[in-house]
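HUMAN: Would you supply a protein with fold tokens?

ASSISTANT:
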Amino acid sequence: MKHTSVALLTAALLALLTAACSNSEFEFSSHRCYLIFDNAEHNDPTLASALVAASPGTFCRISMRGEKKFGFNSNRGLESERMMNAKDALRTCILGVYNESGIIVGYGTLGGELCAYDAQCPNCYEESNMPRYMLSMTDAGLAKCKTCKRTYDMNNGGIVIENGRGNDRKMIRYRASYADTGISKLLKVNN
């Protein structure tokens, strides 16, 4: 009898653990995204402002401007550009659904983890499959779509908080990491 209850308890715990792990897989998009950017080489203040874990709520859009420039815009009003260097030119750079609208990175106020989102409205994009629904950002860490009027909370996993229509998609999310060793300040974003 004891062996049966231990076996059932073990099976239940394994099923729960498997379910919890499988749900986390759906948190990140299968859309292509790949960026490696060393801000120690570029020293961009707009991007740097969003990569401070101790100061969450600042987000930065990274986009391509032409073939050889990165563009940076923050939800705090900062804007800058940096030319690609030789290392950048050798790396593949795919900024989500559409390079010109790019991705948004920053630490959310809930959970304190680095987030990377696609800058496209996920609901409009999925309905039309056209990359022309770039989200605007507010100082409060919200992203808004001018087409469907949905508002997303980047501080809370990119969920819809205004003008939702029921079965809304959260913002498209990618894996992100940032390591500041003093010698390098390496941001990595991928799917």
Remarks:
- The chain is about 25% helix and 30% strand.
- Helices lie at 2-25, 39-42, 45-50, 86-90, 122-128.
- Residues 60 and 74 are 4 Å apart (CA to CA).
- The chain has a mean pLDDT of 86.
